[in-house]
Amino acid sequence: MKTKSCSQFRRFLPGFAVPTFGHCHRSSTVRLILRQLILAAVLLSSFAFQAQAAEICAAVFTPEKAPYISERVAKNKFVTNRHFEEYARDLHPDFKNNIAKLSANQHWIDLGAGKATAQIDFLKTFSNKNQAPQATAVAFKLDRWFKPSSYEGKLKIEEGAYETMPTPSWKKADIITDVYGVLSYTANLSQALQKTIDLLNLEGELYLLISPFATQIKTNNEHITLTQYLKSIEGLKIEEGTTTSQLKITKTKNNIQIPPIEILRYTDQAPPLRTYTPKN
To answer: For 133-168, what is each residue's pLDDT tens digit?
Structure first.
């Protein structure tokens, strides 16, 4: 019987066909070379595609480093409905007078505002909302049912992690308040402070209600308080109120640089105990 001709296509990979020439015993070398060449081309194409796909995925899906969010913050395990009268009572005594002086083109930002209760109380005191200042409430998480009035466009609510919010695009503030809010709970304290000071207009005021010894900065084998750390920053005027928990911070110059610090210890309570060290 004659040897059958191998002048046909033989498949060795799905989707690929290899031509053979003449009789099988005369074309084995040719077939082997062709198979090796095609296999090499397929493998190179596959590797190139995978590398390109990995590069695209990295560019599209790799997020910025997310801020640390404690369990207490994630679950909203703190007061979220403080009223304006509590702000007036608990913040530095100057707050009550200075917030009343804000004009319609000025801006109050509340960090850790919860349900924006204090700002809503304040806006309700204006019979003509056109005379009220702009108010922005920063809240980490809101209930789905919570849909407050915008008070004729005067109230805006920003939900999420403050550390990642695009604050450079916001209207500059004349007063910022933080009642055991973002600056008491963040692990990224110097970053959050830098964003906050940058948000203030020149001579703008930041009013803090803090736990004075809950935050410590370890420098040169000693620990300093948050108040002492703030007093060391050029361009900030720090005034304590009737208690050490009340701080009024005035921005006295532009382009203030907050010394970077990094977290060493974070104990999740209300408010948390935090220890930082200067960042190299």
So the answer is: 999 999 998 877 778 889 999 999 999 999 999 999
Neighbours of 252 (CB within 10 A): 13
Q: Are 250 and 205 within 8 A, CB to CB? A: yes
Q: Which of 61, 81, 104 is the last residue of a domain?
A: 61
**1, part of any domain:** no
Whether residue 138 is contained in a domain is answered as yes
Domain coverage including residue 85: 71-278
Residue 68 has a pLDDT of: 63
Residues 116 and 246 placed together within one structural domain of the fold: yes
Q: What is the mean pLDDT of residues 259-269?
A: 94
The pLDDT of residue 148: 81
Q: Give the model's pLDDT for residue 54.
A: 47
Pairwise pLDDT comparison (221 vs 82), residue with the higher score: 82
DSSP designation for 5 = B
Task: Mark whether 34 and 157 lie in a shared domain.
Answer: no
User: Same domain, yes or no, for 53 and 114?
Assistant: no
pTM, 2 dp: 0.74
Whole-angstrom distance, CA of residue 101 vs CA of residue 205: 13
Residue 2 lies in a domain: no
Identify how many contiguous H helices and E strands the chain contains and give both numbers: 8, 13
CA distance 225 to 244: 11
- Closest to 118 in 3D by CA, of 102, 103, 96: 96
Point out the least confidently predicted range of 4-18, 89-103, 120-134: 4-18
Same domain for 32 and 129?
A: no
Please give the Cα distance from 59 to 268 (Å, whole number): 34
